[in-house]
Write a structure and sequence with these properties.
There is one protein chain. By secondary structure, this protein is an alpha/beta fold. The protein has 13 helices and 14 strands. The chain has helices spanning 27-36, 60-73, 86-96, 103-114, 118-133, 159-194, 210-218, 261-266, 268-275, 291-304, 350-361, 377-385, 408-417, and strands at residues 10-18, 40-49, 77-80, 99-101, 199-204, 235-241, 245-251, 279-285, 312-317, 328-331, 337-341, 365-372, 389-394, 400-407. The chain has a seven-stranded mixed beta sheet with strand order 6-7-5-8-9-11-10, sandwiched between helices. Strands 2-1-3-4 form a four-stranded parallel beta sheet, sandwiched between helices. Helix 10 (291-304) links the parallel strand 8 and strand 9. Helix 4 (103-114) runs antiparallel to helix 5. One of its GO terms (cellular component) is cytoplasm. GO terms for molecular function: GTP binding; GTPase activity; guanosine tetraphosphate binding; metal ion binding; ribosome binding.
Length: 428
């Protein structure tokens, strides 16, 4: 059903520069996307326009130039670095005599190759079906309307209408299954919230090094590679942070500028981990000359999924690719960490990241000493369970003097459990 092409296929790349800043794409990024899809680039056609051409997107003359290059290079597919309308795709295919794929279709194909889990595959299929639903007519132009006459009188439903109906039914079925998965995720989130376990979500531009950092922090074996969208399926791991305790770390799909809306909608359940996190670790490729634009692109997607209000900590990764750069923590005027510079691949600055996490997630710590009589020994064991005991001493009356250091919320919970009795044992 989908227009999947085999790896190694020869492609002509088309990149048009527009005067409007918001419509510009990056040619180098297109090359990386094509490489990630396993396609061989055998030619690049570039041009400049003030606005897209309604029929061919790139203009009549440029379309004929592309067709000539396709014929000369014996290419099998033309890939545009821009989103095309279904009509523009059909018109270009007629003149080029080969398949035409736009930026959205290329990203969808990469996602289809990368999906590993059941949920990931469902999300990709949903995005593909929504993208395909506007392009069905291309394969059935000879059956697009019911005609009279011998051999053309049928059940009253054209092949095109049948396909559209089947497509709608499949989309509904996938949405039902994804809804069940989302409910299961929600149960896990509620359980973590009841235990008050903070969640930290890794976000960032694709290929910024999120999975490498994730593996370094959690000692996991998550797939990491120097390619776009190496990670597609979300992974959750538990880590320990000083003065905080257990923290759930989530590795998510990388973002890209002008991320297709179909993908954002399909991955809504996965991105909920980002929207409901306590802190976002925004991983940035410090060696990328487009780092500033990439940060803006990530912020746009965060706003689209309503996660722009979540507190974030900037993590500048790939420090090893910069000259004379050292691992450090940048702080704001209040002394709060706002940026951490590190190299996940070389294991440099990871300790600084944990220090920053401890400060950003840590609660107000309470230090006090209590004198527990022998009859209240159970509270001593509770303090040990919370890993809050610094030292213990015993006096002549058999009381245990316990020096404690623990988060304010844990102390308040202990007070509530003891019905306020523990406050009577505090030594001034």
């Amino acid at each position: 059903m989908f227009e999947r092409y085999e790896a190694g296929e020869r492609a002509i790349l088309v990149h048009i520069d527009f005067s409007a800043e918001g419509e510009r794409e990056d040619l180098e990024e297109l090359k990386l996307l094509v490489s990630s899809a396993g396609v061989t680039s055998c030619g690049i056609v570039t041009g400049r326009r003030s606005s897209p051409h309604p029929k061919y997107f790139c203009g009549t003359g440029k379309a004929e130039e592309i067709a000539a290059v396709v014929q000369a290079e014996q290419a099998e597919v033309v890939i545009f670095n821009h989103p095309l309308s279904p009509a523009q795709e059909r018109n270009l295919e007629r003149i080029c005599h080969c398949r035409v794929l736009d930026r959205t279709g290329l990203i969808l194909d990469i996602f289809a190759q990368r999906a590993r889990t059941h949920e990931g595959k469902l999300q990709v299929e949903l995005a593909q079906l929504r993208h395909l639903s506007t392009r069905l007519i291309r394969g059935w132009t000879h059956l697009e309307r019911q005609k009279g006459g011998i051999g053309l009188r049928g059940p009253g439903e054209t092949q095109l209408e049948t396909d559209r109906r089947l497509l709608r039914e499949r989309i509904k079925a996938i949405l039902r299954r994804l809804d069940r998965v989302a409910r299961q995720r929600e149960q896990g989130r509620r359980a973590r919230q009841r235990r008050e376990v903070p969640t930290v979500s890794l976000v960032g531009y694709t290929n910024a090094g999120k999975s490498t950092l994730f593996n370094r922090i959690t000692d996991s074996g998550v797939y990491a590679a120097d390619q776009l969208f190496a990670t597609l399926d979300p992974t959750l791991r538990r880590i320990e942070v000083a003065d905080v305790g257990p923290v759930v770390l989530a590795d998510t799909v990388g973002f890209i500028r002008h991320l297709p809306h179909d993908l954002v909608a399909a991955f809504k359940g996965t991105l909920t981990e980002t929207r409901e996190a306590d802190l976002l670790l925004h991983v940035i490729d410090a060696a990328d000359e487009r780092a500033v634009e990439n940060v803006e692109a990530v912020n746009e997607v965060l706003a689209e999924i309503e996660a722009d209000e979540v507190p974030s900590l900037l993590v500048y990764n790939k420090l090893d690719l910069l000259e004379e750069a050292e691992a450090r923590i940048d702080r704001n005027d209040e002394g709060e960490p706002i940026r951490v510079w590190l190299s996940a691949r070389n294991d440099v600055g990871i300790d600084l990241l944990f220090e920053a996490l401890s400060e950003r997630l840590g609660n107000t710590m309470v230090e006090l000493t209590v004198s527990l009589p022998p009859s209240e020994g159970r509270w001593l064991s509770r303090c040990y369970e919370l890993n809050a005991v610094l030292a213990t001493e015993y006096d002549d009356q058999g009381h245990t003097q316990v020096q404690l250091r623990l988060p304010e919320r844990d102390w308040q919970r202990l007070l509530k459990a003891s019905e306020g009795k523990l406050s009577d044992f505090i030594l001034k």
